User: Fold this.
Amino acid sequence: MNEELEMILEDVSANMVKAIRHLEIEISKIRAGKATPQIVDGIYVDYYGNATPLNQVANVSIPDARTISIQPWEKNMLHTIEKAIIASNIGLNPQNDGIYIRLYLPPLTEERRKELSKRVYNEGEQAKVAVRSIRRDGIEAIKKMQKDGLSEDIAKDAEAEVQTVTDKHIALVDVHCKDKEKEIMTV
Assistant:
């Protein structure tokens, strides 16, 4: 295969890996009844006029399986962090004791578990759409090369290789979603 074709195949594979990594990050934010620091990863705090990630203005720790403890590095940031947590709509109410902010994760009900499972599968579908879009772009690039003089046999082989990589990544999305659903549904 020529160099340009190999670069297209490498780009397709690299972009699909990025889509899988994004899925992993997004489903790690969906809580499964256990406290993890990733639950508060997407929260930004107004720090002297700048939107700053929560973990850059406070220490986030997990003292037990159902509690997230947040200790601001500056005491005057307590109320700002509390407001940011409420505004983030993560479904947890902050408890402020003047030194720490604690987030208590309530036990998950069956209804909430099903709702979280639906969110996981929604994220999975978005990842599949991204992977298929990457496949489409790769195949279009191969067809453009074919119009520019690439032989039909080489183009068909390259398209088959793109499809194989796509199938592998779609299966990986399904595995991640099933694992996360199993984690959520375990009481």
About this structure: The chain has four helices and six strands.
